[in-house]
Amino acid sequence: MRVIKMQKNIFVYKVDRKNETFICTPLAIFEPRNEYHCELILELARREGKVVRVAGVGHSPSDLACTNEFMLRTTHLNRVLTVDKQKRRVVVQGGITLHQLHASLAQHGLAMINLGSISDQTLAGIVTTASHGTGIDYGVMSTQVISMIVLLADGSRVYCSRNEQPDLFLATVCGLGSTGLILNIELAVESSFHLKEVLESRSFEDTLSNLKQLVHSSEHTRFFWFPATDMMRVSMSNRTHETKRPGGSWFYDSFMGYHLVQLLLFLGIFFRTCNTWAGLLASWLVSSASSRVDDSYRVFNVECRYLQHTTEWAIPYENVEPCLRRLRKYFHEILVDPRERPHFPIEIRFSAPDDIWLSPSYNQQTCWIGIVQYKKLFEGSFELYIPTSKISCKCYRKWIRRDCFVTSTCNAISSDYL
């Protein structure tokens, strides 16, 4: 087991969110190589009276893994333990990243059922935060978990599932790491498959007028909204037996879509109108209809090309239209100041109801609205944050089911709208 001793004033974990900076200097960072090492760390923490916080790859834009006591990194707990191709189940260690899992599953002709827009995170991090992909008939990714082995604070290992220790199971699959350390995860998968993604552009009004039809028109529907042009890029993906046809163009996707857009965003720090031009260019580059066929995880994932700030809100599916219209009104108001415009398309996704206690999709179909800002634009870059939070929380609280979970943050932020 590797123990990293920290020197005073060396910052080892730093995350920016809404102009806040979360910094911590752990007393020690442990990198266990097996489950027995994890037990030793917890025993040491008990004897020393220290708190242990678990960190994966540090992807979450929050202070969730921050501590000034003991930090446990799951970097080496990344093995695939068993693969049952017939039952389409795998057992893996919680520290495996999704990129590593995709590669291992592909060797056995298997793939994950649904994915989010990136695969940098650890599987345990995905599970304990109820991360999601898109698909109105597909639950958050935690619903793919069949069972787990959790290491509790007293050092005991507990097997839990929906049938055995169900309370611990339902508390852990969206528990933010508060119930214990997830050692092993048994995951439902499916035979590897290709996805055919069809992309088309629609106006904002046309999209909202046909919202339900579009959401149900494919297995995995998501929208990319460009407020600068009032255009929606509609992505509809379905499983297919067609051969791979990745598509794309180096000139448009790499040179213009990456280098030129990023240059305009950088220049926008000094010349405000460049922000608007960046949005117009990005919208124009994807304005025509297109399609591609590729491995499932390549279509699910989106290439995040720029350093960025991001925030995402979950609202009941039935409230999508009023929320988006309110956001549109707000964006039109701030477009007079290009510095405060949203720099990237707003990603809108959907998920099915689930029974996970702290899941935003608990007992309800859910819409997820993600807003991203270019990270280099510090001045005014999160002027969008608080108003957008208020709008989202208003749409959530006004029609919220009584048995749904509401964070204290939403309660506080939405006070002006109640």
SSE blueprint:
Blueprint: E1 2-5, E2 13-17, E3 20-24, E4 28-31, H1 35-48, E5 52-55, E6 70-73, E7 80-84, E8 89-93, H2 98-107, E9 110-111, H3 123-128, E10 145-151, E11 157-161, H4 166-172, E12 181-188, E13 190-191, E14 194-203, H5 204-209, H6 211-215, E15 220-226, E16 231-240, H7 250-267, H8 273-285, E17 290-295, H9 296-300, E18 308-316, H10 320-334, E19 346-351, E20 366-374, H11 385-398, H12 408-413
Parallel strand pairs: 4-6, 5-6
Antiparallel strand pairs: 1-4, 2-3, 7-8, 8-12, 9-13, 10-11, 10-12, 14-16, 14-17, 15-16, 15-19, 18-20, 19-20
Helix pairs in contact: 7-8, 10-11
List keywords for this structure.
single chain; 418 residues; alpha+beta; Uridine Diphospho-n-acetylenolpyruvylglucosamine Reductase, domain 3; Vanillyl-alcohol Oxidase, Chain A, domain 3; 3 domains; 5-stranded antiparallel sheet; 12 helices; FAD_lactone_oxidase-like
Structure report:
It is a single chain. The chain is an alpha+beta fold and 418 residues long. It has three domains: 13-73; 80-191, Uridine Diphospho-n-acetylenolpyruvylglucosamine Reductase, domain 3 (2-Layer Sandwich), CATH 3.30.465.10; 194-417, Vanillyl-alcohol Oxidase, Chain A, domain 3, CATH 3.40.462.10. Helix content is 28%, strand content 28%. It has twelve helices and 20 strands. A seven-stranded antiparallel sheet has the order 17-14-16-15-19-20-18. Strand 10 and strand 11 form a beta hairpin. Helix 7 packs antiparallel against helix 8 and helix 10 (320-334) runs antiparallel to helix 11.
